[in-house]
Amino acid sequence: MFNAVCVVSLAVATLSVILSYIFLINTNTVSELEAMSTNGLMFICNAAKVHKLVSKVTNLVKNVLYIKIGSGPENLLPILSKQIVNVYSNASTQNTDIRLMLKPINFPEKVPTNHAIDIIFYDSVLGQKVESLQQSINNLETRHKVQIVYSHGIEEITGGDEVKKYEYVAVGGTFDRLHNGHKILLSQAALRATKHVTVGVTDVNMIQSKVLWELIEPVEKRIKGVLDFLTDINPDLEYKVEPIQDMYGPTKSDPRYELIVVSEETKRGVTKINQKREENGLQPLDSYVIELATDLTSKHTAEEESKVSSSNHRMRLLGSMLKEPEPNPHIPKRPYVIGLAGGIASGKSSITEKLRLKGAAIVNCDIIAHELYKPGLSLNRTLSETFGEHIITAEGEVDRKKLGQIVFSDKNKLEKLNQIIWPAVIEETQRRIKALGEEGFEVVVMEAAVMVKAKWYKYCHQLWSVIIPRNEAIKRLQERNNLSEEEARQRVDAQTPNIEQVAAANIVFSPYWSYDYTQTQIDKAWDHLQKYLKN
Fold this sequence. Notes:
By secondary structure, the chain is an alpha/beta fold. Helix content is 39%, strand content 16%.
């Protein structure tokens, strides 16, 4: 019946560019709709209209918008393949999670969704089928209204290349924070499969070359996101979504795979996979290559990639609240203490200076430690007794370079140094923070390289961490301290790894790019802090 209605509509419709779209919004205002609509499902008779209509309704759906297309001959696989690219490429500027369902509907067949539907959209051709549309949804929140999207005319669209189908299809990627580029990749794989799709999700050893890899979601969460999307767009296929430790995954040894779907930037890997298959006596895989989706968002900056990518998303998380701070009843409410963590040569001091210019008072724990090394103080004598008198200069100062050579080459000695210094440093730090609060400072930044390792963040209301790539830190340390590469590597590796700094942090910065890009991160974090303190 759905098919018949579509055919009739095509016979009388003018095949031209859509001139206008009109919403019929019963008795509800747009603001009321926005307030109540969490997930929507849009029924479209003809695939040619999809990407034009999507932009008209996304502002009425907060979370997920499903798109279901009719089963007529006008919705051939080549057209659907083209619309996968159109829909997701144009959706890169939207916050709504768009999901183009690949299986055409045939009444009275049910439409399963992983997320409950509370608003339905449908084009004018289907206006008399509202009851059937409602009844077809398995997961419908019936308390919400049904809206109508009317369209005038049908945009003419021609089919693309033939879509060849395969029983077993493979696809791989990081799939961090599933974005529209990922959706194109996964949808094209599912469109070409008749039985099975395997998705290889890169695990720890394969992600460490990625930009801000420390912010990549756990592999279990990425797998869940991929499976949730795939079962929504086509629940009839069988899926195997698993972590992979190399670029080959199961394709190197399983003869059932026939096609691999890749992006332009990973297509060279197909040759290597097929070489491995040939070594194992298997037939080579066919490949389908998709173009990279351009990032059209207004947030795009010169430091970011021009394509839609997870790297861009992770970069935009810098300076943002990754997790809300928990109340700390063990310290006074004021001054509000921000713990600033970061490894050696991470650029932590430059971040501190930017926060000072915002109005924060600064307590530098590393400087306090150095002050406690001064001649005549008990700590000076203790270090001399523990590590040898040769670490003391003729002026009675602790020679930090000699001390560093001792402790950074021996973990046990470094641990012994920490046990001596840390209690004295944190005691003096707390005294200074209290004094700054009494002077009237509302925010105090407590900067320490060992913040996470020493768990000093328990003396803070929030933890902000500063990270840069390990190799960049080694390079900076060599240049700054005139060290050999080996000496610099020892000192960097003796620090708390970036992944642990990030795991503990409320906010993360990375002064790896331009000055302006770093300042943008600071501005974002400080603005959020001011709003938080007002509440």
